[in-house]
Specification:
- About 40% of the residues are buried.
- The protein is of the alpha+beta class and about 800 residues long.
- Helix content is about 50%, strand content about 15%.
- The strands form three sheets. Strands 1, 2, 3, 4, 5, 6, 7, 8, 9, 10 and 11 form an eleven-stranded mixed β-sheet that branches. Strands 14, 15, 16, 17, 18, 19 and 20 form a seven-stranded mixed β-sheet that branches. The chain has a four-stranded antiparallel β-sheet with strand order 13-21-12-22.
- It is elongated.
Length: about 800
Amino acid sequence: MRDLRYAVRQLAKAPGFTAVAVLTLALGIGACTAIFSVVNSVLLRPLPYPESDRLVVVIETKLPEIPQFSVAPGNYFDWRERTTSFEQLAAVREFSYSLTGAGEPVRLEARRVTPNYFATLRIRPAIGRDFTAEEAAAKSNVAILSHGFWQRQFGGRREVIGETVRLDGQAFTIIGVLPERFSPGSTTEVYTPVDYTEDNKNHGGHYISVVGRLKPGVTIEQARSELALIAAGLAKQHADTNTGWSIKLVPVLEATVGDVRPVLFSLLGAVGFLLLIACANVANLLLVRATARAKEIALRTALGASRLRIVRQLLTESVLLAAFGGLLGVLVAQWGMSVLLAFAPDTLPRAQEIALDGRALGFACVLALVTGIAFGLVPAFQASRVNLNEALKDGGRGTSEGGRRQRLRSGLVVAEVAIALILLVGAGLLFRSFARLQEVDPGFRPDHALAIDLTLPLKKYGTGPQQAAFVAEATARLAAIPGVQFAGAAQIVPFTGNDYNLIYKIPGRPPLPPGQIQGTLYYAATPDYFRAMGIPLLRGRLFTAADAAGAPRVAIINEALAKLQFPNQDPIGQRINITNADSEIIGVVGDVKHYRLDGDTRVQAYEPFAQVPFNFLTVVVRTETAKPGSPAAGVSPAALPAAIRAAIYGVDKDQPIAGIRPLTSLVANSVARPRFAMFLFGVFSAVALLLAAIGIYGVMAYSVTQRTNEIGIRMALGAQPRDVLRLIFVQGGRLVALGLAGGVAGALLLTRFLSSMLFGVSAHDPLTFVTIAGLLAAIAALACLLPARRATRVDPVVALRSE
């Protein structure tokens, strides 16, 4: 307690030093705590299911063509009958319903689940009950609501059980409401039962997802081995559909967080480096302060204080500084997380769970304690090494700094420069990667276009002609809106996260060996879809209104498919079989990026929507743009949503519109994660650069103060200001050069961990390394400039008089 009281008094006597040290530490500790909170919430915290570590997602895979795919219902039933590794295997399929009878129609995200789905997750409804097997078999109209939907639609009334909700024009009885924290990050609002028994012989169509709970004591590897044996047996039993297919098990947490793990751990490493720079700066401050307190420490030592006692006192002060920095750092972390979440992509999993919980606060406390000891230990030991004779004699003179202490301070600056260079190189690589990503041509024109998502209720639009008629009338009405150039539709469009993969054959060619397939991304498109998307026609023609349901089957393929299947011949007039019918290829269009800008080019095939209709689709509306030389500014897509809704409701007043989004936002969302990583790396590296510059300035300014007498003597003997400038710049340049050398070596070693996050740029890109090193050297030169200019203004008479 005496040490603590004395430490408080000492820090209060030096408010400037205390404020700078606490703010520096708060910045480092706060940044680390904020990023740790994200990592903890997204990657480390268990999902809100009992024994969630035993939950796995079962995926089918056929390498190399299909790395992961949904499950065929027939395979699911065979697994369920033959496996001994699982307590439960449940199936689920994404769905949607139209909510009507409560104002404007709304599309609800839904899931159709087997009756054991919630039992597999070990989740019970917070209100009401679970589904029964009888309800699933009878296709009963019963529903379980999400907590959020229950709150919004029914005001959180517990009496909702037994009431009905109209979905797709039918009355569904509400039998349960899920707990608030169920299925983090899910947008599903309604669950209905299904048992899939009608599809139990279907081994070729893959459209359900499967989740399982392992039995106690069974590992994922054991379950994977058992399912692999079952898959091998199914390949023999159903050679046409199952040959070459295998099974992959993924823990539910890993399936939930996806590929965000490398990004978050890279950011955690970056803020760790930032904290190291902050600690180095505070350690330098403590070394300077120790020099000023040399007489005090010598006096205490002369009066009997042991070296351990001195070290304990100084460590108490540094830990107290870290404690203040930690307290302020928690506030910085809270503010930083709000900023971070504001810039976070919508695809960041479990984002709504990110918070400063007990584990994050504990992390901040431990971090403050560790950093307090880390940056205080060496200065404390250095300060406790005093020469009593030198320190106590000539009481009127200042105490000079020893060579060892000066080398330590210089070493800390070298480390700061090296770490700053590593962070800056990482940020530079991510920036160049993002710039390259932005230059990628998606294969269509996202500007001046809107995407409108629609799902037609099967009860009203249960047949293909009904679906085709609705889409034809809707696109015609949308195209008639003033300012609209084209309106086209397809059952899927790029960058929405949805895909539709089908197996195709080229008629007249020998059949492929069992297990070998040819797959393509498939689109059912209306005649103006290509014009609305801005997809270029390379050869042949596009669809027309004449390509109707009863007309000869036709298809359009992309350039990649044309090169793959018809490398030395004209594909126009050739035939392709995709949907169990031969279609004549009438056109070739450009390749379109479907998933991401950095994704591979996939083969793609299109057939007329009128010939292959769907009940789910996305309509694309392209607006007029300003013409060269015309005073008209064109039509902004932002001005059209009201007219679009009126056009859709004019066809069917009960048809919900899921969303109206600019195509540019879809493309922007596909690069949201790299943009997020680039932004945070940029912020951290900028702060690191600032701290490193402050560190260099501090060392050089203190060095000039220490060498005032030497500089005065040099100037008295004839040295010119330029000679003094050279003296200071050589000293600072030596430190910076050592730091740059160490930083380049460290960056070459560590940036390889960023390789998975880079596009079109090598992790050892020479231009980035040279540019960043030059930038850091220039900033360091500026940091040396002020102390050097001060040195040139030393008055030799004043400097020598002090001797």
